[in-house]
Specification:
This protein is an alpha/beta fold and 281 residues long. Helices cover 48% and strands 10% of the residues. The protein has 12 helices and 7 strands. Strands 1-7-6-5-2-3-4 form a 7-stranded parallel β-sheet, with helices on both faces. β6, α9 and β7 form a beta-alpha-beta unit. α2 packs across α3 and α5 runs parallel beside α10. The longest helix is centred in the C-terminal third of the chain and has 29 residues.
Length: 281
Amino acid sequence: MKSFLNNIDTKDFNDKYDHWIFDLDNTIYDFNLGLFKRVSSRMTKYIKKFFNLNEVDALTLQRNMYKKYGLTLRGLMIEKKINPEPFLEFVHDVDFSELNEDVTLKTLLGKIKGKKSIYTNATFKHAKNILKSMGILEEFEIIFDIKDANYIAKPDPNSYHIMKKKLNLNDKNISKSIFFEDTAKNLKPAMELGMSTVWIENDYNRKEADSLREYINFTGSDIKSILSNMLKFWEDNFFNLIEGNIMEIDNMKSIIDRVFDNNEEINPNTTGETRDSIETA
């Protein structure tokens, strides 16, 4: 894995990728906020009530379905014949008031020249609410949700093949795509399709990521750090600042040259443009 945080000698990835595909929860927003835990908690509550289970048994069933199928809902649909719509409506009815408009992320996404898509195991409604809260909804052309995938969740390879078709990816352009994801096991099928992969570092998935290193091209602590490095965001702004300072220096030089050309004396009592410029410098 190549960590951007430890590597500043990177090229502009706009030249390399035409399709930028992002997971939603814990990828687009900071994993450390713990917002998706609320969704998980509501899954437990729904299972507890629907199947008339106690807390421990409900949580056990939830975890078993997730481990076996990659998505709790997928397992419940197959083994328990549950209706997905009421389940999804209930579990995604959560408060995300901590999510504010993210101007920096919006600016970074705006610098991407290729097509940007969301690929999530959640619903379109949930994704839209998240992206709208962060002020970045309009940055994405497509939101590919669990319904689009026929309720087949990542990391099932079938989900990726459906996504590939929906996003107009094929064997010729798949190598020009890059996928960002916080769950390491979800990157393996993407790379096997021919996509480049980026893992959003987090302690919860670190052990898993270590075992799947061969399927991870790049890593970083958060989406903004990674995109900043990929798109040379801070480098561009740094040189803009330097160029601005050079202009100021050139302006200062012209003022001083004019003073000496006119045989004027610079002293502590100097006033006007010359004096102000000297103090500013």
